[in-house]
Design goal:
11 strands, mainly beta, four-stranded antiparallel β-sheet, 12% helix
Length: 164
């Protein structure tokens, strides 16, 4: 296996800037767990809930994970809901698949990964995501570029920052 990345926590100051869900922010920050694979055969790294939340049908929440990832060039981290949550509750990432580029790590926001999720159930099910429970998974994928690629710009932001 290629070892191409490492997860880190964002600084407390950066986490606090992105946190708007209440509670003791310092305590929540201290309990953040870095993403992990569950088994040696797992492709995905599980991201863990920083707090417990209840999502009723059609409710949405933005979750500051407190996580950033440093990875080699020519790799991307793709984010998906955990399979079981999607199957049982139709839990969805609002952007369908999150894309974390290798240069996002160096952004002004330290590459802080956020997730916006919706309980998209059509069976009237409420989902409870407990603190410390995996809710999203990230898979590293190698990618290539075209022969005539001439990108020279550097990223400095998150959503939409590369098209400004």
């Amino acid at each position: 296996m290629k070892r191409i990345a490492q997860f880190h926590k964002v600084s407390f100051e950066q986490f606090k800037k992105g946190w708007d869900l209440g509670g003791n922010v310092e305590e929540i920050y201290q309990q953040i767990k870095l993403p992990k694979r569950a088994t040696t055969g797992s492709a995905g790294y599980d991201f863990f809930m920083p707090i417990t939340v209840e999502l009723k049908p059609q409710e949405t929440i933005k979750i500051p994970t407190g996580i950033r990832v440093e990875m080699n060039d020519e790799w991307v981290l793709k984010l998906y809901p955990r399979s079981g949550l999607g199957f049982k509750y139709r839990l969805q990432l609002n952007n369908t698949v999150g894309i974390i580029d290798s240069d996002y790590f160096y952004s002004d926001n330290e590459g802080h990964i956020f997730s916006k999720i919706t309980n998209d159930t059509n069976e009237d099910k409420t989902v409870v995501l407990k603190q410390g429970e995996g809710f999203m998974q990230g898979i590293f994928i190698e990618y290539g570029i075209t022969i005539d690629d001439d990108a020279t710009s550097l990223r400095n932001g998150g959503f939409g920052s590369t098209t400004k």
